[in-house]
Amino acid sequence: MSGLLTPAVLLQSTPSSTNVSPDPTPSSSPRPDPLLNTKTLKNAVLKSHGRPPWYGEDGQPCFPAFVIGIAGGSASGKTHVARQIVRSLGSIPTVIILSQDSFYKKHSPEEIALAFASRFDFDHPDAIDMQLFASCLSDLKALRQTNIPVYSFEQHQRLDETKYLYGATIIITEGIMALQDPALRELYDLKIFVQADSDVMLARRILRDVKERGRSVEGILEQYLRYVKPAFDNFVGPSSRYADIIVPGKDNSVAIELISTHIRRQLEKRARQFRRKMAGTLSRSLSRGPARHLTNEELGLVVLDQTPQLKGMFTILRDETTPRQDFIFFIDRLATMLAEKGMEMLPYRDKTIETPVGCRTVGKVLDVESLCGVSILRSGGPLEQGLRRVVNDVAIGSLLVQSDSKTGEPLLLHVMLPACIRERARAAKTWVFLLDAQIGTGASAFMAIRVLLDHGVPPAQIIFVTFLVARCGGIAMVRRTFPEVTVVVGAVDDGLHETWLEGVGASMDVGEDDDLDGAAGRKAWVVQPGMGQIGDRYYL
Ligand SMILES: Nc1ncnc2c1ncn2[C@@H]1O[C@H](COP(=O)(O)OP(=O)(O)O)[C@@H](O)[C@H]1O
Ligand SMILES: Nc1ccn([C@@H]2O[C@H](COP(=O)(O)O)[C@@H](O)[C@H]2O)c(=O)n1
């Protein structure tokens, strides 16, 4: 792996307009193709055509990520092969290139001093934290988030920071010892060994280490003869026997093409028909006669009290003649009421206080370690204001789920989560308000809940807050699959219909279960009587 820092890298094969970032920093300006320049690898941002559902109707992940292990001598061309595979795959879902270099053990000051004198053996299997490597890879393969170490070749040291990774469909790991460890080998779906002549490897290593790793030629040669060459003979070379395919270290375009064809076939087998299935079940049940309308109690929803005051607010919001200013005012007010209702679902404990007139009294205090919001873009946006009013300084992340224009499948296009749920241990202690304007087919809600579960948020700590739910839509499936998730809603409507919306093709109002379908309009599942496209009415 080249580059001074060696974090795992998230790459996309072709540029996309949508930024799917593993980092909380959104990219605003066009970035160079990270495949072309090794120096940009450390800044690479995951871009994707979107991640289709990775779970079944039971909500459980059904296909692990496809994992490829690439081993070979130092500078044999492992990173190059990995990038060529990504490039050759063309339009594919997200890929992570995970370098074994990230997992060099933390060194003592004495070891670092030896490393600077080219007297430290980085080529023995013991130099690598194989256990951590296997555990991070196993999390990623199981579609869970992970945080991997970041290594500096310049400092010969693992840095304090870690790199958050989530959401890859294909993971390519590369490293001299990638095929060495049995636990790692177990995780691979395809094992590759890159074979190059030793003089080619040495020549490439000298050029690269001088240019990119700040080394002298003398140091490189000393390290090579003392450690690199013997390790290749003893460990790296012999591990080629575990490979499914040996790829030449140069002129390897035919091998790369064969490998990508194999991967493409494997991915096709994993394609799913999720939203269609959810909507299909619904249509079939409707065509058999009048839909059986489950009651709010049967659906297990927490519905705001349907007081005349609330009904009055909904009347204004449902009215198509309501001016936008009024719509925004009442949506914000309703969002605040829903956030307050959501707060009722949290645990509280007793707290004794003293009042300004000297009386002691027992009250309540919120009993949660951490609390955040995640908004399903962009129609979850109008609920953010309500949550901010109720919870001071609350961190709110976002997810972008959009329907594929051809298949209608929900696609996860963007994940930007607050820090408190980017680490598994913290996520387990965090309560999350998941915000979306309405639940129609339920496909977006399903996907968003799955993302939180992948990060280790317990289902009982997820509070889905929404203005409207379609009684006969996917809510029954969402509730059946994730019974511990609380759904707080303003009103429950009876209808859900697939409609052609004229002239709104460019809209990205994706939280409302719509299918983008050309510039002249789009097909969308709309809740009826409903309020129309809440995001459009709020933001346009
Ligand atoms: N097939 C190839 N053709 C030409 N140059 C290559 C090829 N593969 C690798 N290289 C060059 O060799 C050097 C080391 O390659 P790299 O992929 O970083 O090796 P590794 O990851 O195995 O250490 C890089 O400068 C790279 O550009
Ligand atoms: N601080 C370090 C750590 C490792 N190395 C050398 O890197 C080689 C593995 O990386 P490749 O990208 O070449 O596969 C390995 O041979 C180590 O000797 C180093 O020089 N300094």
UniProtKB/TrEMBL annotation:
<dbReference type="GO" id="GO:0044211">
    <property type="term" value="P:CTP salvage"/>
</dbReference>
<dbReference type="GO" id="GO:0044206">
    <property type="term" value="P:UMP salvage"/>
</dbReference>
<keyword id="KW-0808">Transferase</keyword>
<keyword id="KW-0021">Allosteric enzyme</keyword>
<dbReference type="GO" id="GO:0005525">
    <property type="term" value="F:GTP binding"/>
</dbReference>
<protein>
    <recommendedName>
        <fullName>Uridine kinase</fullName>
        <ecNumber>2.7.1.48</ecNumber>
    </recommendedName>
</protein>
<dbReference type="Pfam" id="PF00485">
    <property type="entry name" value="PRK"/>
</dbReference>
<dbReference type="InterPro" id="IPR027417">
    <property type="entry name" value="P-loop_NTPase"/>
</dbReference>
<dbReference type="GO" id="GO:0016757">
    <property type="term" value="F:glycosyltransferase activity"/>
</dbReference>
<dbReference type="InterPro" id="IPR029057">
    <property type="entry name" value="PRTase-like"/>
</dbReference>
<keyword id="KW-0067">ATP-binding</keyword>
<dbReference type="InterPro" id="IPR000836">
    <property type="entry name" value="PRTase_dom"/>
</dbReference>
<keyword id="KW-0342">GTP-binding</keyword>
<dbReference type="InterPro" id="IPR006083">
    <property type="entry name" value="PRK/URK"/>
</dbReference>
<feature type="domain" description="Phosphoribulokinase/uridine kinase">
    <location>
        <begin position="67"/>
        <end position="248"/>
    </location>
</feature>
<feature type="domain" description="Phosphoribosyltransferase">
    <location>
        <begin position="306"/>
        <end position="499"/>
    </location>
</feature>
<dbReference type="GO" id="GO:0004849">
    <property type="term" value="F:uridine kinase activity"/>
</dbReference>
<dbReference type="InterPro" id="IPR000764">
    <property type="entry name" value="Uridine_kinase-like"/>
</dbReference>
<comment type="pathway">
    <text>Pyrimidine metabolism; UMP biosynthesis via salvage pathway; UMP from uracil: step 1/1.</text>
</comment>
<dbReference type="GO" id="GO:0043771">
    <property type="term" value="F:cytidine kinase activity"/>
</dbReference>
<keyword id="KW-0418">Kinase</keyword>
<comment type="similarity">
    <text>Belongs to the uridine kinase family.</text>
</comment>
<dbReference type="Pfam" id="PF14681">
    <property type="entry name" value="UPRTase"/>
</dbReference>
<comment type="pathway">
    <text>Pyrimidine metabolism; CTP biosynthesis via salvage pathway; CTP from cytidine: step 1/3.</text>
</comment>
<feature type="compositionally biased region" description="Pro residues">
    <location>
        <begin position="23"/>
        <end position="33"/>
    </location>
</feature>
<keyword id="KW-0547">Nucleotide-binding</keyword>
<comment type="similarity">
    <text>Belongs to the UPRTase family.</text>
</comment>
<keyword id="KW-0328">Glycosyltransferase</keyword>
<dbReference type="GO" id="GO:0005524">
    <property type="term" value="F:ATP binding"/>
</dbReference>
<feature type="region of interest" description="Disordered">
    <location>
        <begin position="12"/>
        <end position="37"/>
    </location>
</feature>
<feature type="compositionally biased region" description="Low complexity">
    <location>
        <begin position="13"/>
        <end position="22"/>
    </location>
</feature>
